[in-house]
Predict the structure of Glutamate 5-kinase.
Amino acid sequence: MNQSVPSPFTEQAVPQWKRAVLKVGSSLLAADGGGLSPRHALGLAQFVSANVLAGREVVIVSSGAVAAGRAIVPRALEAGAAMAARQALAALGQAQLIGLWQRFFERPVAQVLLTHDDLRNRRRYLNARATLNELLRLGALPVVNENDTVSVDELKLGDNDNLAATVAALIDADVLFIATDIDGLYSADPRRDPQARPIHDVPELTVEVLAMAGGAGSGAGTGGMHTKLEAAAKAGRVGIETCLFNGRSAEVVRALSQGRLFGTRIHAAQTRVAARKYWLRHAPLEPGAILVDSGAADALRGKGASLLPGGVVGAEGDFRRGDMIEIRQRTEAGEVCLARGVSQYSASDIRRVAGRHSRDIESVLGYNYGGNVIHRDDLVLL
């Protein structure tokens, strides 16, 4: 029997999902006076465990390293050294942050540190995605954070809300959960305006909705409600819904484990599949192409298969791993463009493994990015 939850937000259903990103901010992990506290993290960890046991997959995006480091060296923040001090505190606090999460799980917790440069570089983006997917396959729990120890002002992601949205897109998540320190989105800041109304459901992130968000929230974090809506907009553009909820309320978090949301649900602009296919169709092409035989062409068209090296007969151009290129078939009438997709290998690598079995890739190249030249999720027929 569902229990009532003391919340100004009415109950609604959580979107159906198999894979999710859970973003946990510093305000939920920071202890009074510095360091980290398990007080709110425990309930969120129980939410993760319950869903993993139900066969779902979760990636945590967690802040808190700087707060943890501040407790170790409380005098580290000196005038004139803000960035260097933050980087040092992050380095000191990362072990404590991962240790906090590991204490709640019997499964291994994996630390993944990312920078803006990792995510704008297509090859690094693919490498990060492959790593996260493999960690999930192995049954580990990835905990992602910005790599503050090497980030600089112009390269910083700026806040982990937007990082969480990028990670959700990276792993093709179905939903982005953002645990915050208030109940959800209001028409105004409820801490300052007693007339603020709870906004339960956001079909579209309009200018008016964005205007409801204020600036930064707590002193422990870097992002307020505005960055959370920015993240929801970013996730929504690739078909991922966002749920905002109060991570400090044990009742709200328990209800979430039962598929009941007391918070704000922000709908995606379109379905995840449609958004992905649109991007694949319209992303800029690099010069060059992968040439395939008739068997591979039939498998792509008729079976929705991935492109394997055995069906490749050659490559044109000098493209790199991660580039968007065409897939062509040579016919008596000339080359026919069948599809376009993101290549897992460079043109020179593809020439070396063309016609080979997937199991031969590593023996030929000395490394292996997987058995597919282009995975079906990264490919669209034309």
